[in-house]
Amino acid sequence: MRTLALTLHVVRGADSRIDHYSVIARDVTEHKQMQAELQRQATHDELTGLPNRTLFLRRVAEALDRSRTLRRGVTVMFIDFDGLKNVNDTIGHRFGDQLIVSVGKRLVNATRPSDVVARLSGDEFAVLAEGVSDESLALEIAERLRASITGQHVIHGVEVTSGASVGIAIATNALLAEQSPTDAALTLLVNADTAMYRAKQRGKGRCEIYSEAMRTQARDRLTLGSQLERALAKSELAVVYQPIVSIHTGRVVAVEALLRWQHPERGMLTPPAFLDVAEETGAIGPIGDWVIASAARTLRELIEEGTLERSVTMHVNVSPRQLSDAGFVERTTNSAAAAGIDLRQLVLEFTEATALAGNPAITRSLNALARLDVRLSIDDFGTGYSSLAHLRNFRAAQLKLDGTFIRNVGRDGADDPIVRSIVQLAHSLDMSVVAEWVQSAEQLQRLRLLGCDHAQGNHLCEPTTVAELRDFARRAAASERSRHSGGTGAGPLPE
175 and 239: one domain? Predict the structure, then answer.
């Protein structure tokens, strides 16, 4: 079917009377098609053909306007699916694009004809569910959406796995009374986004309904993130140290560097209070580099002055974002060289969850570090669902038992067989075992009998300053010498 544009001209005779009419027809089909395509591109996602953010917000605003008169509920869901970056990094963006298309189709198939599914950007989608105001129904719909895109997707014959987190925001009467439909639409989307991030913080693969408490938490996290980005420049960050000792001799075999933040208002903060924020904002990059450089310098100083033996290693925790950074390995080696320590004296700790994330960038960094003789240690082992055989692929030299096992060791004997089995398996793979969170002499004695190699915890020494670490190391060395010479050896380890 063609579209014609008609132009009518009046032709007059010599006496100025109308003689006849002239009609010119132009074929404007392609021009109209181009206009329609430009309009569609302005409101639809090119890859999936779904509405984009602009059109989605317009549809939400229209639904909210209807809700004022029809008293119908309006719910917005913000969906973030996992796995896109891994697909792009490992098998290419062509596969990643098809994964996005697959997710979009599954979401459309899982919704009602009246619902609106939109692609906002990257791996983020949104759904408008009009007529929904009940929380239980909203959760039921969100869970159905999450389940629809979780699992296997076959892309060009290749199976890829995806999961999802969903945030839910339900329009309230107060929101409709306070804001125009256009403003309320944006507020709903932002609130759903906030709820989605809350779901991811609680472990991914979840659905969360927005609450005002989340807004306060989000605002606090934003403030904390801004303060954290300035903390390094303002010298509010510090490194404390906790010794790791031989469970048999009490000799200091390693030291772990631990970050602290002297917050101007909240006092001394440990990493659990701000590490997630550092990961989100990217502040973990420069802060992590600073911790490694500081710890390396401290190790060199303590070795040069004779406080620590040259065989002692320095442990530093590293996060997924650090390991995902392509420049992390080079910066780490440069820090060690600048401090004058051998790379074999550096031990980088990463959690079992990090190892199991399946991020190819992390795997590349860990393998590169291992090739450079940087030692790798798997922290909090036992909290995930991995096997030692799987983690062997990361060429780790050591694992640290999660503190939940240590807490119950020797009490009722329930965890003792688990600890013994992990130790035996680790030793069979040439990995040493550190028992952390040791809080009592009884735990220490039992862990020694279960075969652990090293111990760490407040029973031995709390995280402390360099000066107090120096005193502890000297006492431990003196105690070991005393035992060898036949003395009582009143050191950190009970006989």
Answer: no
